[in-house]
Amino acid sequence: MSLFQVTKPKAGEPEKKSGVAVNGEIKLESASLMEQLRGEALKFHKPGENYKTEGYIVTPKTMELLKKHLEITGGQIRTRFPPEPNGILHIGHAKAINFNFGYAMANGGICFLRYDDTNPEKEEEKYFTAIKDMVEWLGYKPYAVTHASDNFNQLYEWAVELIRRGQAYVCHQKVEEIKGHNPPPSPWRDRPVEESLLLFEGMKKGKFAEGEATLRMKLVMEDGKMDPVAYRIKYTPHHRTGDKWCIYPTYDYTHCLCDSIEHITHSLCTKEFQARRSSYFWLCNALDVYCPVQWEYGRLNLHYTVVSKRKIIKLVETGAVRDWDDPRLFTLTALRRRGFPPEAINNFCARVGVTVAQTTMEPHLLEACVREVLNETAPRVMAVLDPLKVTITNFPAEKAVDVSVPNFPADESKGFHTVPFSPVLYIEQSDFREVMEKGYKRLTPDQPVGLRHAGYVISVQNIVKDKAGKVTELEVMCIKSSTAEKPKAFIHWVSDPLHCEVRLYDRLFLHKSPEDPNEVPGGFLNDLNTNSLTVIQDALVDPSVKNAKVLDKFQFERLGYFSVDPDTTTEKIIFNRTVTLKEDPGKV
After folding, report:
1. Which residues form the Glutaminyl-tRNA synthetase class Ib non-specific RNA-binding domain (predicted)?
2. Is 84 a catalytic residue?
């Protein structure tokens, strides 16, 4: 089932095409994200018309609460992006960010960034900061940055009220006893209200050990889970509230009530939260507070990766990757470090579309979006990753000359940069072969080549080798391209270059589904690609990039798209290969 309904274009309007995934391949260009998220194209209720949504529970107070809600919001669309600050956002979160912020933006509304900070054991400042950075990097500005912990006092008062109404009780069953879909009913379910009130107060005052008591709500969820926990005891200082609390609310209790406090109109979440929809509606109505509508959509996953926080931590701890921003991962910080433009990630999310069905895409479809953006935005420079020295014996000038190179050869209006052209230059080892082979079009003793942008064709006069017989230098003669026979190929080169380090990345895992025990017996750590990172310490790049800043992006002609890594120092620039110029069929 899709969240989108088909709308026919008006007379005279062109039909918009949407990205449709067929066997993992996107067959059509997608409409822009904003076009997809216009309110009229979605089966969403209008603000204040929550009651028209299928499954929405109408109580005697619903219409009065919706009227007050409209008075507060003025009929404005309100969404929120509610991440847990216990890890770094990944590519799946990019879809959630685009959907929540994009839907509000497309319809003149607002979106909150709300941290679901109810588990102090796993929360760290670096995660709060990184989450906000990634939201803004993707181009969105939160209407306000809020925290579930902002509402701890109100949430506690509502919990007390829930007990008073006979809808919650203090339970002493252990976590192990209530796990699964058919746990035994709690023997404390019908304990007197006054007793639960006293015990809950005792929980707040620290009279119980962790795991000795919980507050549970009296309802059965869609998946059969009975009486979900509303509060549990944790003697861990909170990132923002310190030691004030030793009881903390759960997601099942907190989320819908924070949505109510912020007067969210559309609570957008991924499909796995559908089983919590009943508790969402039940809790708001049990307390007689404004009840938003929860809408579910399919998660976005990629093959050849893991995005679980626990598994990424394992990869870091075992040294398989350096950290959360290792460019082989698909966290957003890793993609930024590798050089993926935020526009490309947003375009990818738009092409995937917003559907209820879970979508698992091939990484090369994301890389195709990256190439589209970088092709228009990354200036061309020349670099050599495996250098071979070339000496021009008849260099046509007494010293080096400047050669003008277009930043974008297809559009010279975007400017030029200059590179030196001197008697000594460097080409790729792979651009020379001592023995001619069929189909080889680059430099051989019998086959000259042109030098990109230089205006010269070179031909081999002498081959210099070391004691082991390895070619170390070519001595060549040059002739102006205008007077030479047109060569079969033009190759890139560098002269008076900068030394740099280049990091080449391949897939981190060998199999499409590294978490699938049928595909990878023994777990995802047994599926690591040992060749996922190649470091070239002595690559050469033309000196036009000497003032490049971290995350600046370039196309190295004939080699791929590259981005300046944060490890760069004043002594040495370090480049990450973002993507190749075209999809590499030889990838593992």
Report:
1. 21-67
2. yes
